[in-house]
Amino acid sequence: MENEQNFIKFDTFDYKILNYKVNNDLPFIERIRDFVVTPFINNLYLLRHTQSFFNVEDRLGGDAELTPKGIQDARKIAQYFTNKKLPLIFTSTLKRTIQMAKIIQQYQNNCRIISFDEFTEINAGIVEGMSYEEIRTKMPEIDQARKQNKYYYIYPHGEGYVSMESRIERGIKKVIYLSKHIDNIMIIGHRAVNRMILSYFVYKRQEDIPYIYVPIDGYYHIKINQNKKLFELKRFKL
Ligand code: G3H
What is the pLDDT of residues 4-55, one digit of tens each? Predict the structure, then answer.
């Protein structure tokens, strides 16, 4: 390669240019460079699981199942997506996302569910299972410290947004790798996880990431190619 006049050496998994030598005035070279460093996402539908028993009590973490309302809403969402062929649905390994994916799967033909640990909700460590109100009253120092710098705050014995970065990135790369040539991909995640997934595709300041709006009755439609990047928040009528 080193003897060549022009070359671009790139990592197709990381969408990174490893070496770049262009001496001649080549046509379309910028376009080619953009092409190789852009991850192609035809249509990614990023959803949050519907209401779980922990959501009702505003509790963090855990592995609660969907409430009857959560199941009913998941059915409505499944109907909403019947006009789209979904060969793959990615979830976390927690019950609430898998349960929702199974409901959507019932309304699809040949739809496979793949669950990744990488998409598991933020681990709240010693406050797992507590409600935000309980944290405020019983452990105000945690509440205060987290408010100071939510992105960098790491729950004792747990995670923070910052420490989720590498696993979320690994999960996204697995999704992209497995979804090549697929028109529609769905990820059913969690609030903190979906914030991190969104921030992988669209630039956000770190301090804003933990506040990205991730409603239960909506989803993000993401589409990326070398010509355009689309991020659209769409709402369901639940
Ligand atoms: O259970 C975790 C929450 O969904 C994360 O949200 O980072 O705004 O507390 P939060």
Answer: 888 888 887 777 788 888 888 888 888 777 777 777 889 999 999 999 999 9
Active site amino acids: 48-49, 55, 96, 121, 190
Summarize pLDDT for 212-232 with one digit per residue, the tens. 999 999 999 999 887 788 999
Distance 75 CA to ligand 1 centre (A): 25
Pull the structure tokens for residue 39: 């991850």
Strand partners, 128: none
Helix, coil or strand: residue 188 = strand
- Residue-level length of the chain: 238
For residue 7, give both structure tokens. 């070359």
User: Ligand 1, from 191, 193, 198: best to mutate by most atoms within 8 Å of Cβ?
Assistant: 191
Q: Which residue has the higher pLDDT, 8 or 129?
A: 129
Q: Look up the pTM and report it.
A: 0.89
Tell me: pLDDT of 64 over 80: yes
User: Which atom of ligand 1 lies at the shortest distance from residue 132's CA?
Assistant: 9
Cα 191 to averaged position of ligand 1 atoms, centre (Å): 6
Helices marked H in the chain: 29-37, 53-56, 68-80, 95-106, 132-138, 140-148, 161-178, 191-201
Look at 94-108, 147-161, 170-184 and tell me which has the smallest mean pLDDT. Answer: 170-184
Phi, psi of 145 (to 5 degrees): -60, -40
Q: Nearest residue CA, atom 1 of ligand 1?
A: 60
Residue 209 CB less than 6 A away from ligand 1: no
Q: Distance from CA of residue 178 to its chain's centroid?
A: 15
